[in-house]
Amino acid sequence: MCTGKCSRCIAVALYPLALISIICNIVLFFPDGDVKYAKDGHITEEVKYMGGLIGGGLMVMLPALYIHLTGKETCCGNRCGMFLSIAFAAVGVAGALYSFIVAVLGLQNGPLCKVILVWTTPFKNNDHKYLTDDTWWGTCTEPKNIVQFNIGLFATLLATSSLQVILCAIQMINGLFGCLCGTCQNKGVRRS
Questions:
Q1: Which residues partner with 120 through β-bridges?
Q2: Which residues make Cβ contacts (< 8 Å) with residue 120, sequence separation at least 6?
Q3: Coil, helix or strand for 46?
Q4: What pTM did the predictor assign?
Q5: Residues 108-156 pLDDT 10s
Q6: 131: Cβ–Cβ under 8 A, 6 or more apart, which residues?
């Protein structure tokens, strides 16, 4: 496969992953589908880091656009374009890693929720394995189903950012081949 076609395939795969990351991060601001928690500041701390919006979203969407454009021109653009795609893909790796780390922290610390009358993160710094033992989920009384909500969305961010890191790393290698070996062209024999 030509390096340009590979670039286009990677970019096309990165678009929906970046969009999913952005949507997940925005939805995390509205537990139970209600804006009152965001207004009152009762949002899990890791949501405020905006790993999905900034890291897995914008910092991956920008390289995806450039990588897609690099792959458009004839087969794969030129050597300079492929060299720049390495730098853009590195930005994508950094953004996806940021999203990955924030998602891991979000899963590790658990949600901010109301326990009896106090807003706290009951699973933070705890030996309880709340991720696998759903008997602890009832500890949170408000917002409703906040533990499942956070686990689902942070796990989705974790999965999308993992795929983004892999795809951007592949593009870095692809860009290196395109830069060193040149653009792929039809090298058939000319007939008179």
A1: 113
A2: 112, 113
A3: helix
A4: 0.88
A5: 998 999 998 899 999 888 766 888 888 888 888 999 999 999 999 999 9
A6: 107, 151
